[in-house]
Amino acid sequence: MQKYIIEVEDMTVAYEKKPVLWDIDIKIPKGVLMAIVGPNGAGKSTLIKAMLNLIIPISGKVLFNGACYESQRRYIGYVPQRGSVDWDFPTDVLDVVLMGTYGQIGWIKRPGKKQKEKALDAIKKVGMEEFVDRQISQLSGGQQQRVFLARALVQDADIYFMDEPFQGVDAKTEKAIINILKELRSRGKTVIVVHHDLQTVKEYFDWVTLLNTKLIKYGKVDEVFTDENLRMTYGTIGPILKGE
Amino acid sequence: MTPQLEILITVVIVSSACAALGVFLILRKMAMMTDAISHTILLGIVIAFFITKSLTSPFLIIGAACMGVFTVYLTEMLKRTRLMAEDSAIGIVFPFLFSIAIILITKYAGNTHLDVDSVLLGELVFVPFDRLVVFGRDIGAKSLYVMGTILLINMLFIAVFYKELKLATFDAALASVLGFSPVFIHYALMGLVSITAVGAFESVGSILVIAFMIGPPVTAYMLTDQLKKMLILSILIGIVNAIVGYWISAILDVSIAGSIATIIGITYLFAFIFAPKRGILAMIHLRRVQQIEYAVKSLLFHLYNHEGTDIEKEESNRHSIYKHLHWDKRFLERVLKKAARRDYLSVNKEYLKLTPEGRKYAIKSYEVL
Fold first, then answer.
1. Which of A165, B22, B27, B190 would you call most buried, defined as having the most Cβ atoms within 10 angstroms of its Cβ?
2. Among residues 283-342 of chain B, which lie with CB inside 8 Å of chain A?
3. For residue A98, what is the domain's CATH number?
4. Cβ-defined contact of B170 to A16 (cutoff 8 Å)
């Protein structure tokens, strides 16, 4: 078996003249729960998007299980930023979660009973069973994020990418989400999360990538998430973590 | 079939074909793009006409469709440079391509059927004059068959790719990750918009094409929050608008396209005012109810916060409390009435007191925050 589930090699991404990501090399082993942290504009979301082929890099490549993205698509789940979609779209919770099954169904065919049951299971798992028929415009921020998480769960992926899943959610939802992420990890899934709250990195994640256009450091949280490395990432002087 | 009936059926078909596609256009926030496409296709038609030398060639439709897609591509390219926003890009591309078409027509095709007025407003009255003749037999107005075919293609496209259209419209990034190319869906949709516009423009004109593509879908959007219902409603509204508009134009003896477009606008206005959940009246009502609701809550909070404190008397005096809360006296009366009706408050002499019920409600609504 392949030792690393994700390998990013020499990846550079630029919008117009300015490089957003500069020569990134990362090798991620299977079964980690990894945060990508860095200041605003560090290229965290861009890194995820480039790995998912949503942005074409200037150079470099990404391998999943040693193979290219297209052949591994089936095993990859994605939770975009909540703000990236129009929540006034005329649809309900169940319908949005069902979208996660579209990849397994393929072109043209419609989701059937089996997919619906799967979606309902996932909705229950994120604690949204009361809201199955709820119009998505009527959801709070935390509920929207739970719906997105449920949609990712039905994708039945091995690797999950999540873009700021804790952005603007209530404390209860944050707990619920992190519990599900930890459960995914315990089932051998690999979860990559763009994260902005440094205070919770140690509690939530076992791996971390420190990014600021360039890759500063990545690896186990215990080894990498140090004050010195954080200072290199954020470029500030003085302790960044409270109480340390 | 009488000429009147042929005209009516034509507009009904055009309205359905446009209103169905329009749902996805407005959900993709592309209303202005429709405007652009329905005009720039003229350049495609003119160029195809110069090549084929025929106004009836099917290549005209292909030329128009290509130009429509090219319009979208050009606009998006300009937008991608980040030198201008999408609406500005449309504002540059659309008049540019359209004007080239006009210059070409006036310079080289002035004596053909292609004239600028009929492009904008169409000539529905002429629909019955252009016959489709097969094996020497007249089988009806040509535009009936052209638009019927286009309607069929649109409906098939939406029925077959409904799931993909929905996903790519709601969340293009996920569509891409799951392997449903949003670019393909996007350009297929734009191609169909172009074909529909070119098929319709000769009979109904580009203004009515835009009106049909935008009006019924936004009206339907006011009335429902389910995509399937929105599609069906949009088509129905389009059909009703077409029939009513046609009927009024016959009574008043005015332009058919103009009459229908006006009716589309009026229908939207009605939905805008009276729609049960999203109309303005519903909104105003909701805001009033909420305002009182919040006021009741904040009054209860206020009393709860000062319960048992030294200033409780001062803070709960029913004759001065409006000053503390900065409310108008009459508003206070309304709030008090509402709170009293639910047994949240009791009045002891001139002091307001929370009932146990009211206290529970105050705590409960505080915890939700």
1. B22
2. none
3. 3.40.50.300
4. no
